[in-house]
Amino acid sequence: MTRFRIDYHPYVDGDLMDIATLIAEFAGLEAANRKLEEIEEVVRNLEDFPHIGTLRHDIRANLRAIPTAGKGVICFTVDDERRTVLIIAITYAGADWSSRVAERD
Predict the structure, then answer these.
(1) What percent of the chain shows pLDDT beyond 90?
(2) In angstroms, rounded to a whole number, what is the distance separating the alpha carbons of residues 42 and 60?
(3) Which of 9, 19, 47, 55 is close enough to 3 for a disulfide, judged by CB 3.0 to 4.6 Å?
(4) What is the pLDDT of residue 105?
(5) Superfamily of domain 5-103
(6) What are the boundaries of each domain within the chain?
């Protein structure tokens, strides 16, 4: 089975920095690093299982959303022809992920 390639929207780095800062402020740097590792593991699993998650066509065509790291959400689309997964946004702690996705092209 050929794995899917993971691509990231340019703003996802900022999403991860925001998550790390939020967690580090309340629980420390070690806890923030653990949460980021949990998120990264879920993203890596998309290489083999890209069609998991709930489809949210109401927000964006072919959008999928999956929970991660307890309070997080990973939003992504799958391109079967190119065998890629595009991570559009990663949010945490009740952030409005649907609005964030809608803002990103």
Answers:
(1) 90
(2) 21
(3) 47
(4) 80
(5) RelE-like (3.30.2310.20)
(6) 5-103
